[in-house]
Design a protein that fits this description.
Largest sheet: 8 strands, mixed
Helix content: 25-40%
Length: 480
């Protein structure tokens, strides 16, 4: 299978070729490894690859049988493979067993062939760790691919694999998807299990799923992996129908609230604002009702960021101490980056009362934003307010910031996405339009009410059909 043929297909397309015996699973995996070898030296999205995995079969052929897949170097455990969290502190740590989600990826027929890069401990929306070096945007290698699932986004956008595992605690699926021109869905809190080693990640902010090139791949993958495990902290009613059946289904005439500028008082960049406004007009042309809205989240922006900082820093500090106890390495500047050390120091100072206060903010925001979705079906915003920054720009001056200031810095870079994490809502980034001047992709974010991934998939497939992006190819593309 040559690379031109390989990159022409999405994941379900490759699975169909394998099922029809037009190509073997081994040939498809070989093409994926060739794609990694070709473009990874430029984008630096894959930190390790391997060729000894085979697809798991069964009495029925799974939906993604033989499709190459990459896992993020964080959160999901794959037995016998390294899980290094983008950090020198975790170098050499190997997962003792598959996590529940990893087992579901295997059961779906996916063939995992490597690990993708992440910023150290995923505390950033750019992927430029010291441990493995910066991940570069396939559209412009001088720019960031976003984060914290930047490796996943760059790998999908450059044609290495059609779909890749990703996580999202404040925008980490949607920000890279917007940065590289891919589709990124963050499911509802609790829709995808984090078990069995942990129940909540970052106090319920983090959800695991994927970045893909097409809407239908994400829908089919969520069908394969959704649902709780024994001992889950949340229970969500299963969907009425398979998510894949929502692709192509008429979403009806939706009432969409449009928020163009961030809640922190800053302004969305002109090129991003223009592209997102085109998305709003596209929605109107498809029969949806779009209103400009303001959004009351029940707390001040500073209070919102401060509560998130309690979650981020305290949880990360505990996580770091656990990793240090396993690796035998010290938590000090010779091992960790300045921002990570600052987050650790702030996290150790969070009191029980501080943490309970943050949980109260989470409750207030969740209930207040829930009220919005009694009046509107969907909220539309830019995914991020600016184009991807130049490599090195995002992390400038991190040595001078404490942990709370670092979280504030991250939220100023990505002020639209974290609301869905705190409220536990499903949200997606769609690469519908581009910046007129640079040609870079611009993500439009859609947020829906609790448990309404079905609605988002209907709307996403309608928009994808109206403005297909699958034929767009970045400067760094494996199929060239």
């Amino acid at each position: 299978m040559n690379l031109s043929d390989y990159t022409r297909h999405d994941a379900l397309g490759l699975a169909a070729l394998i099922a029809n015996k037009e190509v073997s699973a081994a040939e498809v995996s070989a093409a994926a490894l060739q794609a990694i070898e070709l473009v990874n030296p430029t984008v630096n999205a894959v930190v390790e690859s391997w060729s000894d995995e085979t697809p798991r079969g069964g009495t029925q052929t799974p939906p993604f049988f033989g499709v190459p897949f990459l896992i993020k170097d964080l959160a999901v455990g794959m037995e016998g493979r390294r899980n290094e969290l983008g950090s020198r502190l975790a170098e050499g740590i190997v997962a003792p067993s598959d996590s529940s989600l990893m087992s579901r990826f295997r059961d779906a027929g996916l063939v995992t062939i490597g690990r993708t890069s992440t910023p150290e401990f995923a505390i950033s929306t750019t992927t430029e760790p010291v441990a493995t070096g910066p991940t570069r945007n396939p559209w412009d290698p001088g720019r960031s691919a976003g984060g914290s699932s930047g490796g996943a986004g760059a790998a999908v956008a450059s044609g290495m694999v059609p779909v890749a595992h990703a996580t999202d605690g404040g925008g980490s699926i949607r920000v890279p998807a917007a940065s590289v021109g891919a589709f990124g869905m963050k499911p509802t809190r609790g829709r995808v299990t984090n078990g069995p080693a942990v129940d909540e990640v970052w106090s319920g902010l983090v959800v695991q799923f994927a970045i893909s090139r097409t809407v239908r791949d994400s829908a089919a993958l969520l069908d394969a992996v959704h649902g709780g495990d024994i001992g889950e902290p949340y229970y969500i009613t299963p969907p009425e129908r398979p998510y894949l059946s929502e692709v192509g289904r008429d979403p009806g005439r939706l009432k969409i609230g449009f928020l163009l500028h961030p809640l922190n008082g800053s302004r969305t960049a002109d090129g991003v604002a223009a592209a997102t406004s085109r998305t709003a007009r596209l929605c109107e042309s498809l029969g949806h009702h779009v209103d400009d809205v303001t959004l009351d989240i029940g707390v001040s922006w500073d209070g919102f960021v401060h509560a998130n900082a309690q979650f981020w820093t305290a949880n990360t500090a505990a996580w770091m101490e656990f990793i240090a106890s396993i690796s035998g390495r010290a938590i000090d500047p010779s091992i960790l980056e300045p921002a990570t050390l600052a987050v650790y120091a702030s996290g150790r100072r969070v009191s029980g009362l501080d943490f309970l206060g943050a949980l109260n903010v989470r409750n207030t925001v969740t209930r207040q934003v829930g009220q919005f979705f009694t009046r509107y079906d969907v909220l539309l915003t830019p995914t991020v307010p600016d184009l991807p920054p130049a490599i090195g720009e995002y992390n400038e001056g991190q040595e001078t910031l404490d942990g709370l200031q670092w979280v504030d810095h991250v939220f100023r870079r990505s002020p639209f996405t974290a609301l869905a994490n705190v409220a536990g809502l499903p949200a997606m980034s769609m690469p519908l339009f581009t910046d007129i001047d640079s040609g870079l992709p611009v993500g439009s974010q859609f947020v829906a009410g609790f448990g309404r991934e079905d609605l988002l998939f209907r709307l996403a497939s309608q928009l994808e059909a109206a403005v297909p992006w699958i034929e767009r190819q970045p400067a760094v593309w494996a199929g060239n």
